[in-house]
Amino acid sequence: MATSSGRVDTPFFMPIATKAAIKSLTVAEVKDLGAQIILSNTYHNYLRPGVSTIKKFGGLHQFMNCDLPILTDSGGYQVFSLSNLRKIKGNNIEFRSHIDGSLQILNPKKVIDIQGALGSDIMMVLDECVGLPTTKKKAQEALERTHRWAKMSIDYKKKLGLKSVKIRKQLLFGIVQGADFKDLRLQSAQYLGGLDFDGLAVGGLAVGESTKTMYEVLKYTVPALPENKPHYLMGVGYPENIIAAVKYGIDMFDCVIPTREARHGKLYIANGKLLMASGQVNYKTISITNAKFAKDKSPINKDHPLLKQYSKAYLHHLFKTQEPLALRLATLNNLKFYLDLMKEIRRAIKVGKL
Amino acid sequence: MATSSGRVDTPFFMPIATKAAIKSLTVAEVKDLGAQIILSNTYHNYLRPGVSTIKKFGGLHQFMNCDLPILTDSGGYQVFSLSNLRKIKGNNIEFRSHIDGSLQILNPKKVIDIQGALGSDIMMVLDECVGLPTTKKKAQEALERTHRWAKMSIDYKKKLGLKSVKIRKQLLFGIVQGADFKDLRLQSAQYLGGLDFDGLAVGGLAVGESTKTMYEVLKYTVPALPENKPHYLMGVGYPENIIAAVKYGIDMFDCVIPTREARHGKLYIANGKLLMASGQVNYKTISITNAKFAKDKSPINKDHPLLKQYSKAYLHHLFKTQEPLALRLATLNNLKFYLDLMKEIRRAIKVGKL
Fold this sequence. Notes:
2 copies of one chain form a homodimer.
Chain A: E1 2-3, E2 6-7, E3 12-14, H1 27-32, E4 38-41, H2 42-47, H3 51-57, H4 60-64, E5 70-73, H5 76-82, E6 84-89, E7 92-96, E8 103-106, H6 108-118, E9 122-124, H7 136-160, E10 171-176, H8 182-193, E11 199-202, H9 211-221, E12 231-233, H10 239-247, E13 252-254, H11 257-263, E14 266-275, E15 281-287, H12 312-320, H13 325-350
Parallel strand pairs in A: 3-13, 4-5, 5-9, 9-10, 10-11, 11-12, 12-13
Antiparallel strand pairs in A: 1-2, 6-7, 7-8, 14-15
């Protein structure tokens, strides 16, 4: 996939820099792990540091010192999950900032404008994501709004020609919704697939449903998407979910799991060869805070120049004493795992084994 | 000064790794800044991870992956300041752990044993540090105990021949106390100076007294110490205190200021040439959380390969959003300042300007 900041090999995983920073790591460090692109968030950057600051720097890349491509999520999910007193009035979402309670308004055009100022390589349209389980009526209403907003977004972007960002070409992705209703998902895939988007995301998954439901939705939704455009599964997931989704035709992933679980001392560890001939991921997770690691002299990860220098016992100690270095080493470990997994998947695809 | 882990140029500043970790940084990173030696703490390492874990690794250097010399403070100060229900019974200090409330005992010999297991390059004797202001009676009692313990420590170390750590030669320093009473300080300097210590520390300062009092104590204490042994001023201080103390004949420093203030967003910034011809330190501190830095495009520090890549505005943002990268960059900045200052001081001494 070509972006203004460089080519990205699919399928790929995007480390998360929601608030314009990866938890405790520099972009250079995740690039060293094999990250090709990162994800940030329109809603969060809009509230803080704010568009005027980002504009002063000429974009998010410059502000956060990032030489990798950046995808910015639209913030639809955050507006619907984080903010209080949310009201939809026509195309405007009125909400209170989760930071200072101030009254804020977002709408599809404004979200494009903000992402124009952010200068992200891939912009996402504003959508309405409903949690699962939900009723068909709710799902349908949300879908109609999502479609109306998608059309509005793409038309606005074309009209604008993105004058605010003169040099960078920014891609725009649509987001397929429809909860776990097959007819709605197919309708959404067909409608959005017919618009001039650069890629299509499957949204509204990993929002409370079972893995079985998630796979069912993917099974009928992905084949209905245009084959020649990248397919992005938002917010998923565990390693086995990623493998399964790749098989269903997904090219792009993001997820908080590796960074969030690192914070709680849960480490992803490969058991020998990461990807088995069966297509299964060969791994385990450990809770490094468990007493059994208190004297474990084995390295955190023998295949990483920094992580091989520290024992599991030392990382256990860092967590027990709440030393900030703990988060850094654990996050590095988990992102390495996820990025290694994607490398293995790409290799397997290349040789026809996946 | 020669240590088992290498030569150290005086005067020097020791970054603090109280709990066997520098706040958010690796030892390699502070070494890159010019750190020659770091400080850890006997009391903290004794409670967590504990001696048996450290022994399993063959010492603190191996446990925390540190190829720099390590000085371990005895923990006297921590026992007297952190622990509850402290009782002195003969040579034993009975106290409750500040972590789990368990009953613990330390005494001068045990503190040597623990430091033997830690394998630190410089061990400190157990002493009794009294806060200021204090009465002469209290200061005198604490001093008598400190002297008795110092003699006991040095005799014990000799007798032991430090069999527990077969290869490493560990230095042992005495700690001069006496509060702000000239006769007590001189008595302490003379007594401890007469024992076979490898260096002498001035303890019991930066414990509540005015800067004037601190300087007065140094003025009469340091000349009373053996000239041919290193002089270590414990827990001091601001840049101007360090310069002043160097002039009074101090060779070694440690202080939490650069790391602790980094945590609160207070940054040390050199104003052009750090050390002026007058011998004053040319610097300012800024509170990066202040709104005036929200759009400041200037680099955090133009003379550091990582810090020059990030703006003050970005660091402001990281603090405002409580991103863990904030602590890392701020700590790096402040330790760089302190270590640069020591380099400048050493250079000035070499050319006879200090």
